[in-house]
Write a structure and sequence with these properties.
Elements: E1 9-14, E2 18-23, E3 29-33, H1 36-49, E4 52-56, H2 61-71, E5 76-79, H3 81-90, H4 98-112, H5 122-150, H6 154-184, H7 186-196, H8 203-212, H9 221-228, E6 236-237, E7 240-241, H10 251-267, H11 269-280, H12 285-306, H13 310-316
Parallel strand pairs: 1-4, 4-5
Antiparallel strand pairs: 1-2, 2-3, 6-7
Protein name: Transposase
Keywords: Coiled coil
Pfam family, one: DEDD_Tnp_IS110
């Protein structure tokens, strides 16, 4: 890890209409409009200072900025806002406004030196939008189906049924668009072929893994499990031995892995054997299923890393 004081960083607090910017190299701070003209001037300043940009994930507002800066050859790191807030409290900074946030983000970047974000791939970004919408539509179908069961009025049931048909039609369209997008991109097509070779992993799980977990195949087994939130974390202190628990991580990836693991415990001999062995040792079913999610994830990670299908990975294991 480099000496933090020698690193040139630019901390940016992103909001809908403005950007608060802090440069560690010269200590300057400024507030600019979040417009293309302002971004051109900002990029020139950052390039002149040879700085890396650090910003928080803000629910999507940061994407335009990241895309523009990366196109200019500027390295960007998008970090978890909770980690930055915890860092601020650890530094004794309880005050909060946009200017303070920009300075704290820069200080966080200097101290923690977060991993830079990969350049945004347009096809993967499009796939992420499609899979997110698919999850929303599926959720609406489930909600409307539950409402239909609780309503006795025939007219209301008819209204709900029409809504369900509309969402089901949209779901088919989304599945078609997702498949076409993956087939048109050689890298995504190859990754999809590898993932689909595992019993329990279907097209929906595959699309979500490609879109929402680009790190798959690039990290080791411990790192990928912790990133998704499937690594049991130690909570010991002195003589106290706390129960290991999984937490945080990417919830939407855990949701699709849960369904994949549920299917795999029935139809995938490797995962089923592991699941049954845990139950025989007295492990609760929920814990055993979570362990299967982690095992399935680490196997898929190894498959993508080595460019192997399930059978090839099994033979080399």
């Amino acid at each position: 890890m480099k000496d933090s004081s020698s690193i040139s960083l630019t901390g940016i607090d992103v909001s809908k209409d403005t950007l608060d910017v802090y440069f560690t190299k010269n200590g300057r701070q400024q507030k600019i409009d979040y417009r293309n003209e302002s971004l051109k001037l900002l990029a020139r300043q950052i390039i002149k200072l040879k700085a890396t940009v650090v910003m928080e994930a803000t629910g999507g507002y940061e994407k335009k900025l990241v895309r523009y800066l990366q196109d200019q050859g500027i390295a960007c790191a998008v970090v978890n806002p909770k980690q930055v807030r915890d860092f601020a409290r650890a530094c004794g900074t309880l005050e909060k406004n946009d200017a303070i946030d920009a300075r704290i983000i820069a200080a966080f970047g200097q101290t923690m030196q977060p991993r830079t974000t990969e350049k945004i791939d347009k096809n993967r970004e499009k796939l992420k939008v499609l899979t997110t919408r698919r999850e929303q539509v599926q959720s609406m179908i489930n909600q409307e189906s539950n409402r239909r069961q609780q309503v006795e009025d025939r007219q209301m049931r008819a209204f709900i049924q029409r809504a369900i048909r509309l969402y089901e039609s949209q779901l088919k369209e989304l599945d078609s668009e997702i498949l076409k997008l993956i087939e048109a991109d050689q890298a995504m097509k190859q990754k999809s072929k590898i993932l689909l070779s595992a019993k329990g992993v279907g097209p929906t799980v595959t699309a979500n893994l490609i879109a929402g977990l680009p790190e798959l195949g690039k990290l080791n087994r411990q790192q990928i499990a912790k990133l998704v939130g499937l690594a049991p974390l130690v909570r010991d202190s002195g003589k106290f031995k706390g129960q290991r628990r999984t937490c945080a991580g990417r919830g939407h990836i855990r949701r699709v892995l849960y369904m994949a693991a549920l299917v795999a415990t029935r139809w995938n001999s490797r995962i089923r054997a592991f699941y049954l062995s845990l139950l025989e040792r007295g492990k609760p079913k929920k814990l055993a299923l979570t362990a299967c999610m982690r095992k399935l994830l680490t196997i898929l990670n190894s498959m993508v890393k080595n460019n192997q299908t399930w059978e090839q990975n099994l033979c080399s294991a």
